[in-house]
Amino acid sequence: MDIIYEIQRIYNSFSDKEKSIADYIMQNRESIKNINITDLAKVIGTSGATITRFAKKIGCNSFVDMKIMLGSNKMEKVVEDDDEIFSYTYQYYNEVIERTKMLIDKRTIFKVVDELKKARSIYIYGVGSSGLTGKEMMQRLLRMGFNVHCISDSHMMIINSSIVTNNDLVIGISISGETVEVIHSLRRARENGAKTVCITSFEESSISKYSDIEFTVYNPKFIDKNKFINSQFSVMYLLDLISMVLLKDEELNKKMKITIDAIINNY
Fold first, then answer.
1. What string of pLDDT tens digits covers the 267 residues of the chain?
2. Residues 130 and 251 both lie in one domain
3. Which intervals hold domain SIS (predicted)?
């Protein structure tokens, strides 16, 4: 069993205390192997009994068993250089890709590619950083000839979701799976018959309830939520995969080349 995958998979079912334990463990895996349950409880602000219950909830027999399993899932350590920033950033991206690769089912990618090709119009919902990722996705699809729009304004999401039809495809991006504006808009779009897709980090999150197709990507906050590094990297990796599959289509590839030539010849 991959214990890291299991923690993310059932994260939304944890209590607040259990989420605190999960966050600490995921962000401090190296120090966990050298700490006992009493000291860990003090650091997190909980009890040893709560940590033991958490360990059993994620499929371990005990706290010691959990430490052993965490050790067996350790990512390859990068040799540190004079400036740790370079090594740290490399390790961060490497782990996000490896963990996201484990979570993504390629059959789901082929399924969403089919839906993209069938849709009359494609609408992408996302706010904040997810909205910026949605705009990147829109740019790529536009250059392949799709009729696609990215909406990051909450009022415009509501308006758009109320008029979509069963000929449309709506994609909601929310790493937490709990972005209220995106959830409500995706629900309304689905009620109007649109095919819905969500990209999130947590199975059984609120957004997944209103999605016909669900993508789960690795949540970067489990590596380090305090560093100012791209929180959307796992979604961008998924977007690259979808784009590459789409470009296997001869017609879509041709349109992409036409747009590249148009841009080059314009300067």
1. 578 878 888 888 899 999 999 988 887 877 787 899 999 999 999 999 999 999 999 999 999 999 888 876 655 454 455 567 787 778 878 888 888 998 899 999 999 999 999 999 999 999 999 999 999 999 999 999 999 999 999 999 999 999 999 999 999 999 989 999 999 999 999 999 999 999 999 888 899 999 999 999 988 766 655 555 677 889 999 999 999 999 999 999 999 999 988 888 876
2. yes
3. 112-249
Q: Identify whether 87 is part of a domain.
A: no
Contacts of 68 (CB under 8 A, 6+ apart): none
Q: What is the domain range of residue 15?
A: 3-72
From 53, 72, 91, the end of a domain falls on 72
| Residue 19 to residue 25: CA distance in whole angstroms | 10
Chain centroid to CA 13? 18
Same domain, 128 and 245: yes
CATH number at 248 reads 3.40.50.10490
Number of domains in the chain: 2
Give domain status of residue 91, yes or no.
Answer: no
Q: Angle at CA 23, nearest 5°, toward 99 and 28?
A: 80
Q: Quick check: is 28 in a domain? A: yes
The H or E element containing residue 6 is: helix 3-9
Instruction: Look up residue 120 and give its two tokens.
Output: 């009359």
